[in-house]
């Protein structure tokens, strides 16, 4: 059986130590017999490009990484709000559309509706979905359909992050 490759999605690329975190995740992937692909792995020359063209170049490079991956592990920890990173949500949807397994984890074990203001409606009167899930039902559904989701209530530091990530790798190994 050929070594499976994993696209490592999440807002990790925005962390101050993004490269270090990505390398540590890839090393853990190797430990469990996988090849990890972190979005910052692509060596792109963005010099001379407008911000829009630079963004589109990164988009195309990440699409290529996902196309060449067998599955995804997505860091679904809330980012810049009560829900997961929107780019990560797109990546999970893209992989789901390819019928590849979607695995996720969150360092925030609270339910989505407990992270959003109010209990049934927000301050604008909009209903807050309350399905006892870690995030939006479509995102949790993607992990439930072909992979799995692990949630832990931990502080967001690299050691905790890598511990939870390794637990996901162990679950994937167990299910192969």
TrEMBL record:
The species this protein was found in: Amphritea japonica ATCC BAA-1530
Record protein name field: Nucleoside 2-deoxyribosyltransferase
Matching Pfam families: Nuc_deoxyrib_tr
One term of GO molecular function: 5-hydroxymethyl-dUMP N-hydrolase activity
Keywords carried by this UniProt record: Transferase
Highest taxon above the source species: Bacteria
Record InterPro entries: 2'-dNMP_N-hydrolase, Nucleoside_deoxyribTrfase
Organism ancestry: Bacteria, Pseudomonadati, Pseudomonadota, Gammaproteobacteria, Oceanospirillales
GO biological process: deoxyribonucleoside monophosphate catabolic process
């Amino acid at each position: 059986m050929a070594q499976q490759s994993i696209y490592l999605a999440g807002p990790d690329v925005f962390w101050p130590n993004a490269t270090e975190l990505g390398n540590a995740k890839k090393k853990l992937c190797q430990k469990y017999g996988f090849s990890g692909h972190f979005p910052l792995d692509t060596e792109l020359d963005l010099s001379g490009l407008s911000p829009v063209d630079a963004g589109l170049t990164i988009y195309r490079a990440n699409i290529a990484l996902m196309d060449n991956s067998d599955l995804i592990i997505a860091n679904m920890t809330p980012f810049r709000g009560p829900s997961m990173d929107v780019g990560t949500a797109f990546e999970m949807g893209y992989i789901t559309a390819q019928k590849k397994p979607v695995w996720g984890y969150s360092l925030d074990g609270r339910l989505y509706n407990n992270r959003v203001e109010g209990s049934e409606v927000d301050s604008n009167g909009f209903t807050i979905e309350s399905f006892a899930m870690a995030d939006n039902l479509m995102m949790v559904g993607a992990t439930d359909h072909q992979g799995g989701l692990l949630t832990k209530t931990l502080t967001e530091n690299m050691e905790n992050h890598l511990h939870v990530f390794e637990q996901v790798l162990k679950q994937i190994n167990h299910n192969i």
